Amino acid sequence: MFGYNGSRNSGGQKSQAQEPQVTTPQNTEKDSPLKKTLVLFIKIAVAAVIVALLIKYNYQDFRNGIREFNYYWFIPAFIAYVTHMFFCSWRWYRLAQMIGVKLSVNEAFVVTMQSYFWSLVIPGGAIGGDVARLAITAKRQPPGAKAEGILTILMDRAIGMVALFGMTIVLVLLSIPQLMNIEIAGTELSNTVKIAGIIAILLLCIAGNAAMMALFFHRQLTKLAIVRRLFAWGDSQSHGMVQRLTDAIDLYAKNWRQLSYLTIVSVFMVHGMTVLAVLFLIYGLNISQISLIGIFTAVSIGNIAGLIPLSLSGIGLRDAVLLGLLRADNLPDNIAVIPILYSALIIGVNILCAVFFIADSGSKTSGKENS
Question: Is the pLDDT of residue 290 over 50?
Answer without folding.
Answer: yes
